[in-house]
Amino acid sequence: AVFVFEGIGLVLPLYEVYDKPMRFGFVFGTCMAVIVALFAVVATLGYWVYGPSVDTILLLTIARDAAGVGWTSEALYCVVLLCTFPFQLLPASRILEQKILGIHPSQDRHSKFTPLRACFRTTIVITCALVAYYCESQFA
């Protein structure tokens, strides 16, 4: 259950950049309900298919069971992680923008700083990817 809500720390940064803050509660509640339902369905199907021998992380059980399905599910999970990483990095990148570039988060998103912010955030993501790739043996 802990893995399900690992992005909960993004609620406040997302609220700050949301165009219609009055609707944020409805959108957030709906998204959380869909996510909880989706995880409940996947967990139920995993337990139904594999029984009590299912691992806490379902991907580990799938990877042992079927090579094609296991590899595909792991690849799709990696794509999801790659797509959500910039969102998880948003609070840290805002702090770095403020300290290094002098851009305050409250400044207009559609200002002259938008390309600079995009380049800076892209640089941070690429730097993190390079550190992870080249320092893999030290973290494993």
List keywords for this structure.
140 residues, mainly alpha, 72% helix
Percent of residues in helices: over 70%
Helix and strand composition category: mainly alpha
Span between termini: 24 Å
| Count of β-strands | 0
The mean pLDDT is: 80
What is Rg? 19 Å
Count of separate DSSP helical elements: 7
Q: Name the shape in a single word.
A: flat
H/E order of the elements?
Answer: HHHHHHH
Biggest β-sheet description: none
Stretches where pLDDT is under 50 for at least 5 consecutive residues are none
Percent of residues in β-strands:
under 5%
What does this entry look like structurally?
By secondary structure, the protein is mostly helical. 72% of the residues lie in helices and 0% in strands. Helix 3 (58-65) packs antiparallel against helix 4. The longest helix has 27 residues, at 24-50. The protein starts with 10 loop residues before the first helix and ends with a helix. The model has no long low-confidence stretch (mean pLDDT 80).
TL;DR of this structure?
With 140 residues, the chain is mainly α. The protein contains seven helices and no strands. Helix 3 runs antiparallel to helix 4.
Topology of this protein?
Elements: H1 11-17, H2 24-50, H3 58-65, H4 67-88, H5 90-101, H6 114-134, H7 136-139
Helix pairs in contact: 3-4
